[in-house]
Amino acid sequence: MFTPPHLNYALLAPILIILAGALIGVGVEAFVRKSQRATVQLWVALITVVAALIELLTVRNQRSTLVAIDSFTFDGATVFMQATILVLAFFALLLISDRGNFVAQASAIPGSEDERTADSDGKTQTEVFPLTLFAISGMMLFPAATDLITLFVALEILSLPLYLMAGLSRRRRLLSQEAALKYFLLGAYSSAFFLFGGAFLYGYSGTLTLNGIAAAISASAGNDIFLLLGIVFLMVGLLFKIGAVPFHSWTPDVYQGAPTPITGFMAACTKVAAVGAMLRIFYVALSADLIEWRPIVTVISIITMLVGAIAAMTQRDVKRTLAFSSIAHAGFLLIGIVALNQSGLKATLFYLVAYGFATLGAFTVVTLVRDSAGEVTDMNRWVGLGKKSPLIAGAFCLFLLSFGGIPLTSGFIAKFSIFTAAYEGGNTTIVVFGVLTSAIALFFYLRVIVLLFFTEPKSDAVSVSIPSLKVSCVLAASVIVTILLGVYPSILLNTAQSFATFLR
Amino acid sequence: MDISNYIYLSAILFVIGAIGVVVRRNAIVVFMCVELMLNAANLAFVTFSRIHGNLGGQIASFFTMVVAACEVVVGLAIIVTMYRSRRSASVDDASLLKR
């Protein structure tokens, strides 16, 4: 006898709206005239994201663990993370729509006649918009999913479009394709680990839901070897997605090779989704099992912070530097997972917003620094940029200071609250290492600022292009959020406080 | 036959796949090794489903098959594009990005 499941469509609506928008985008790509596609696609994508956000805000106070049987939980943390992803994605879409970042025809061979024809016609393909929307839907599902199948499917929905998008750069196409290949092969490798871990957790507990696994762990109902294998393999998959050491080696290559707007989108939104899912898995399913995983995650967190901060110093490419900085931040975010208390959850949520906007802003600046051949990402050619264009360089410095955790920027409050949470959780070692690495990283960020502002510019044809209206919006939003959260953090901290709950 | 043998088989397949990804050089072969790992996970799911006597694992294996098919579509697209622009599917040749 088959009984159809009861689905709560109102709470699923934000994701369904995004998926509908993505399908409309595919239709637009097929039926709208080439000359109008870019505009139509952008409007479809923006309206979709705004509609999903409005729908999410209207149902923000509802709570249910039974949205789709027990595969999807709509709780405070879900609302907060989905809203964060949507807002960041809105600005990322504005950045993506800026002209000249994407290849006209991805299937044309680099350097061929086809490519030149497609390029000179000016009829750029715009499949990047529906791909972005598909990725957003996966990102929204990932932190809300509460069973292993849904988690795996969400992981793939968010990853597959990103693999493709990494290969769509207009300039340096070989690098971009190589980034896509590396991202794809390593990503598929890690998701196989994730799935295998899931299979062993199922073998341990006999259930696919996180609640069932938690119940099995507190009753110690199964074979402990299965549990250990399950946790370790599952962690490999998740740590890969957030870019933690020793699974970080893809990050610098992919961040460097992918088109810069995609890098910004990926760095900000994927981190929110993956950290969200990791928080839910550890807080809901594995919290009863403190001994097995907390020391492992603590060590990984410390190594990640150190490697990120130290390797960032040795880089000469701006995008690679930002990639290592994002690795260091993955380490800081892991502190919130180790804390395993309500203030750890609150701090991590706040951290994700602060980090997301600063990262998006930093990559926006990278899209603006150009010479005749496209973006310039060599740090040596950024020397003295502050004298040519103080506003843009100033914004970049602000984001770096926020990464470093200087007071009056959002990064300071984020780091402070995450350290406090870990201290309350009784984990002082990780706090000591966190503060130490912050100091190391700060030294490096200050060096870049000196390079930008207090060094004579070389007579070189690097210029900062005038940002279009859309790009100015992204930059302004990032600057405002970074400063506002640094000066009046209570606005968001209170919201995060009231939404920082996982329903079990 | 003892049902735990299927778990051992699945672990062996997974390890073969995991080692293959690391040592093989052709992107297509690397990708086949990943698929082998996914299928190893499938076998584990189905075996555990049999051990526990519920259907969850079997359902999971269906989802895995669909997802693996999607992954093939995206993966081959990327590998073919790469091959067309370089005339090589070796992952060693993909080394333009700085280490």
- CATH class membership of chain B: Mainly Alpha
Look up the CATH topology of chain B: Helix Hairpins
The helix-and-strand class of chain B reads mainly alpha
Helix content of chain A: over 70%
Oligomeric status: heterodimer
Beta content of chain A = under 5%
Number of domains of chain B: 1
Rg of chain A computed from alpha carbons, rounded to a whole number of angstroms: 22 Å
Tell me the greatest interface. Answer: A-B, 44 and 48 residues
Based on Cα principal axes, name the global outline of chain A: globular
Rg of chain B, alpha carbons = 17 Å
Low-confidence stretches of chain B: none
Quick one: overall form of chain B? elongated
Overview of this protein structure:
The complex is a heterodimer of chains A (504) and B (99). By secondary structure, chain A is an all-alpha fold. Chain A has a domain at 290-504. Chain A is built from 20 helices and three strands. Chain A has helices at residues 9-31, 34-58, 76-96, 113-121, 128-141, 148-165, 173-205, 210-218, 224-242, 250-257, 260-285, 290-314, 318-339, 342-368, 385-388, 390-404, 410-424, 428-453, 469-487, 490-499, and strands spanning 369-371, 374-375, 463-464. In chain A, strand 1 and strand 2 (374-375) form a beta hairpin. The mean pLDDT of chain A is 90. Chain B has 99 residues and is an all-alpha fold. Chain B has one domain: Helix Hairpins, CATH 1.10.287.3510. Chain B has three helices and no strands. Chain B has helices at residues 4-23, 27-52, 56-86. Classes of the chains: A mainly alpha (504), B mainly alpha (99). Chains A and B meet through helix 6, helix 7 and helix 10 of A and helix 1, helix 2 and helix 3 of B.
